[in-house]
Amino acid sequence: MTTVIDIELIPSNLPEAVTASMITTLPTLCPNLQRVRLCPLPRGPAITAAVSELLITDQDTIRSFHVDSLLTEAAREVICILPNLCELLVVIDGPTLLPTFVLPNLTEIEVEYGHNHGWLQGFRGATFGKLASVTFRSESSSIDDLLEAFKRVALTTSIPETLSTFGFYNSSPWRPNYHSLLPFTQLKELVVEFSCRGGCSSTIDDDVITELAQTMPKLEILQFGEEPCSIPTGVTAKGLAALAFYCLHLSMLRIHFRVASLNPIGVTFCGRSTIPREDCALTDLDVGDIHLPEESVLMVTLTLLRIFPHLDFIDYRNVGWRKVAHAISLSKRLADRSSETHSFATP
Fold first, then answer.
1. Which DSSP helix (H) or strand (E) runs through 329?
2. DSSP state for residue 140 in the 8-state scheme
3. What does the DSSP assignment read for 211-269?
4. 152 touches 185 (CB < 8 A)
5. I want to staple 23 with a disulfide (CB 3.0 to 4.6 A). Which of 50, 218, 238, 346 is the partner?
């Protein structure tokens, strides 16, 4: 018995009526569906009707519903109370409201939405017991304060205690209110994307990043913005040191930071000239298009290795970072060779 449907329509150039007809046959051809993935789908009333009927027909068995289609009001009522649902992608367009979620087994939710986030009311007082991953995507240039709006509804649920992954993706310039993220202390992965078209959009500074690091010690992946712009505002060596001090499991970092602040002699934390804790696990640093003067290569390399001694890979677009990446790679090889020699020499 087929319980899984995974269809990728690439390119998705089938006529709407043909695609809709195919979808309507799935419940008959594949009864008791548990996992449904249909993407990308064309938009249109026939597709909406077909997908909604599929959902309503198999509502008692579906565990994963990842379909990038709008839903009818009746289908939205159903999708918010599916008893066995674990993974969900829901697409919202316009001022659509969602009923209150009652999804005790849901672990992952992804929402794609347009210009309005009134749908967040579906989270207010919602029943979640296992929700670990929340992802929002929007191409709207009018984001407002989504993070604050999400925080307000999340605090009426168990989300702050269970959420380990949060992502918001938008390709427009935006100035996030990072303080709204502070209640989510269990986060391991935090991604907030925005564009720096027209000037740096990063509002992160040393105080904000230190506060986030203190409240989220379990962080493993931290990404703010798309790739860092050429002349970013942002944190200094002090903020990077705070991340290294509080977030020992951090392995991947993408953040706007000021190259001019990177000086190994000037790295201080809590009034000390060293970072008084065991090594941070960071191996991957995305520096994007940050400008790096030729004369700063040595200082930047030494400072980064002092803060993040396990750093192994630099992801860059600005060619000025090539020498830093090479120097770090060389230092790691020398360290590994030295360690091997020491091990061989030890009886």
1. helix 322-345
2. -
3. HHHHH-TT-SEEEESSS--SS---B-HHHHHHHHHH-TT--EEE--B-GGG--GGG--B
4. no
5. 50
pLDDT above 90 as % of the chain: 54
Q: Which of 254, 250, 247 is nearest to 216 (CA)?
A: 247
Q: Which residues contact 23 (CB under 8 A, 6 or more apart)?
A: 38, 47, 50, 51, 54
Residue 276 has pLDDT above 90, yes or no: no
* Residues 6 or more apart in contact with residue 195 via CB below 8 angstroms: 170, 171, 172, 173, 174, 201, 225, 226
For residues 203 and 147, what is the distance between their CA atoms, to the nearest angstrom? 14
3-state secondary structure of 43: coil
* Burial of 339 (C-beta count, 10 Å sphere; 0-12/13-18/19+): exposed
Cα 251 from Cα 312, distance rounded (Å): 10
Domains located in the chain, CATH noted: 1-86 (no CATH), 87-345 (3.80.10)
Q: Looking at per-residue confidence, does 337 or 262 come out higher? A: 262
**pLDDT surpassing 60 at residue 342:** no
- DSSP tag of 58: T
